[in-house]
Amino acid sequence: MDARTAAPGAGTRTGAASYFLIESKGNWAGPNAGTFLLDAVALAEAGHRVRVLLVEDGVLTAVGTDAPEIRRLAGAGVEILVDDFSAAQRALSATTLSPHVRLAGMDVAAAALTEDGCRGVWH
Question: What's the domain of life for this entry (predicted)?
């Protein structure tokens, strides 16, 4: 099952923290641009539930079928969402994005951030 078909809440680990990380910067934004996504991988590998929402220029990280950052996140069990509005503003559709991501609206982000115990971080 990939992120497109995963049920909301799938992958929740008992006793683990829940993180909702929002990435707004593209890979070219500077020397530390990729470290935020590596933090997401580290949290997932430590047993936490991690969801990443790519917004603004961050959506460009998910373009193509062989995006290394996206593969690394998916391999660690991170649910990867792409803001549908940001994608549309950049003329991206589901067919141009990695198969490991799914388009989502801000309603999904709002619901995630209001879940009990969810820790939200915006970069």
Answer: Bacteria
Distance CA 117, CA 102 (A): 23
Residue 23, judged by CB atoms within 10 A of its CB (0-12, 13-18, 19+), counts as buried
Residue of 65, 50, 105 lying closest to 82 (CA atoms): 105
**Tens-place pLDDT, residues 42-98:** 999 999 999 999 999 999 999 998 888 899 999 999 999 999 999 999 999 989 999
Residue 8, both tokens: 């909301």
Domains parsed from the chain with CATH numbers: 18-115 (3.40.1260.10)
